[in-house]
Amino acid sequence: MSEIYNKILSVANNNNNKSHKNLTYYGRLFLKIGTFCSSVVPLLWAAHGIV
Description:
Helices cover 90% and strands 0% of the residues. By secondary structure, it is mostly helical. Helix 1 packs antiparallel against helix 2.
């Protein structure tokens, strides 16, 4: 998971240097992924514990 976050951050930083228009797009994308992970990861851990 941390590798994915780092890739997203690096891509966002690279594009942010080129143009600030992408900042809001990657900000929203990052928030979506963050909320997705925060809701899915506990479920994955629970399923892993059951198995």
